[in-house]
Amino acid sequence: MEINLLSIFGGLLICFIPAILLVVNGFWLGYGITVSILKVAHSFNITNALTVVFYGIAPHAIPELLALFISGALGIALGLSVLKIIFKDVDNKLCLVYRSVLMLLPIIIILDYIAVYIEVNFSYPLVKQLMYKLAINP
Prior knowledge:
Number of strands: 0
Distance between the termini: 37 Å
Oligomer: single chain
Strand content: under 5%
Mean pLDDT: 79
Order of helices and strands: HHHH
Helix content: over 70%
Largest sheet: none
Low-confidence stretches: none
Structural class: mainly alpha
Number of helices: 4
C-alpha cells in the first residue's frame, strides 16, 4: 500500500516517480518469478514449477497489480497537472484529477487489502498443499 500512496502523491513532486515505480515493480516481479521458478524447478520438473509459481502469485497479483496501475496513472496525472500549473497552462484540470484521487483512493486501499487477504488465506495454503502433493508424486 505504501508503494501505491508514494506512486500517487510522488507524482506531485515529479511525475516520473510513478513511472519509475511501475518499471521497478515490474522488474522485481519478473525477477521474483524467475528465481522462484528456478528454485522450485530444482526440486520438480519445469511444468510443476510453473504451476507452483502461478498458484502462488496469480490469485493475489490481480487486485494488487490493478491497484498499482491505478495509483501509477493517478500519480502521473497529478504530476502532469502540477507541471501544467508551473508552465502556466490555462486549460489545467487539477481539480478534476484531485477529485479522481479522492474517489479512487478508497478503491486502491480496498484492492490492496483484498490482495493481502488472498495472499495470506489462499495463496500460501494452496502453494503449501501443492508443494506437499508434488513432493509425494513428483
